TrEMBL record:
Keyword field contains Translocase: no
Stated name of the protein: Thioredoxin domain-containing protein
Annotated keywords: Disulfide bond, Electron transport, Redox-active center, Transport
One of the record's GO molecular function terms: protein disulfide isomerase activity
Pfam families: Thioredoxin
Length: 124
């Protein structure tokens, strides 16, 4: 594995409502929880959270990590009732089970860890 593969983000960038539906449906069918970062290029706290989100995606490879730019894919933000950036949604079986608004790395890590843990328990 070369360096570019090691540095490749595990976060999937959502660029349309169709790609959102595809990834969420696929994850739901595979009983895979989803963590979503709703962001905007003009929002400094959102941009600052991107490396934290990438790090989480590398650490929790049994979860699907998605990022949605609210200006590029307004339909998804509207569908999920996202009105502030950054917003982090944790989905299980296609439904939101947790919502964290704001750039709070420790809280995000705690919630993602809880989601991963609850998934491991339910699969055991």
């Amino acid at each position: 594995m070369d360096a570019s593969e090691q540095n490749k983000s595990k976060v999937v960038v959502i660029d349309s409502l169709q790609s959102w539906d595809f990834h969420v449906t696929q994850a739901t069918n595979q009983n895979c929880p989803v963590v979503v970062h709703f962001t905007a290029s003009w929002c400094i706290p959102s941009v600052a959270m991107a490396p934290v989100f990438d790090e989480l995606a590398s650490s929790y490879q049994d979860l699907l990590f998605l990022t949605v730019d609210v200006d590029e894919v307004k339909e998804v933000a509207t569908k999920m009732n996202v009105t502030a950036m950054p917003t982090f949604l944790l989905l299980k079986n296609g439904a939101a089970v947790e919502k964290v608004v704001g750039a709070n790395p420790e809280e995000i890590k705690k919630r993602v860890d809880g989601l991963a843990e609850s998934t491991r328990v339910s699969l055991a």
